[in-house]
Amino acid sequence: MILLTRTQRAQLLANGRQSDVDHVPVVKFYNPLGAGVWLATELDEDGDIMFGLADIGYPELGSWCFGELEAIRLPFGMGIERDVLFTGLFPISVWAEAARMAGSIRAAEQILSARFRGDAARTLNPADTESRKA
Questions:
Q1: Is residue 52 left, alpha or beta, with left meaning phi > 0 and alpha meaning psi from -120 to 50?
Q2: Angle at the Cα of 38 (from 118 to 35), degrees rounded to 5?
Q3: β-strand partners of 42
Q4: Which branch of life, at top level (predicted)?
Q5: Could you report the per-residue pLDDT of 88-125, keeping only the tens digit for each?
Q6: Cα–Cα distance between 80 and 54 in angstroms, integer?
Q7: Main-chain phi, psi angles of 128, to 5 degrees
Q8: Residues 99, 108: contact at Cβ < 8 Å?
Q9: Ranges assigned E (strand) in the chain
Q10: pLDDT surpassing 60 at residue 134
Q11: How far apart are CA 54 and CA 60, in angstroms?
């Protein structure tokens, strides 16, 4: 699997040039066989050092080497994967706070997803949900 699309790489590099901004995560990587989730918001100009929220037992903000992430080999010939359905929705500071409170990025994702669905439901007007007869 390709871990970064060209579009994601371009967005991460652009975010890296604006380091004082609370960016929304661009991509989520995960270990399909166990612990390990990474939400990347920035990529250094060297194309190898990423910044974001990492959780390999405890969620914390920091940097990691993309090349090392790509090089991880798991049983059955598997490696780290990119969550192709991931959408960040919230700034990394919100993710970090939710992950610390919940204990992991995976638990935070459930909480933030429910929060997003709740906010979306509250923005609907009754007329948006009623059946219309032709």
A1: left
A2: 95
A3: 51
A4: Bacteria
A5: 999 999 999 999 999 999 999 999 988 877 765 444 44
A6: 13
A7: -70, -20
A8: yes
A9: 27-30, 37-43, 49-55, 59-65, 81-82
A10: no
A11: 6
Residue 102 to residue 23: CA distance in whole angstroms? 21
Which residues, including other chains, have CB under 8 Å from residue 111's CB and lie 6 or more apart?
Answer: 98, 102
CA–CA distances in Å: residue 27 to residues 37, 51, 125, 127: 11, 11, 32, 36
Residue-wise pLDDT tens digits, 1-30:
799 999 999 999 999 999 789 999 999 999
Q: β-strand 81-82 against 59-65: which pairing, if any?
A: unpaired
Starting at the edge strand that comes first in sequence, how are the strands of the sheet with 81-82 ordered? 59-65, 49-55, 37-43, 27-30, 81-82
Give, in order, the Cα–Cα distances in Å from 102 to each of 61, 94, 110.
15, 12, 10
* φ, ψ (nearest 5 deg) of residue 45: -60, -25
Contact predicate 28/99, CB 8 Å: no
User: Is residue 93 classed as helix, strand or coil in its secondary structure?
Assistant: helix
- Alpha-carbon radius of gyration of the chain: 17
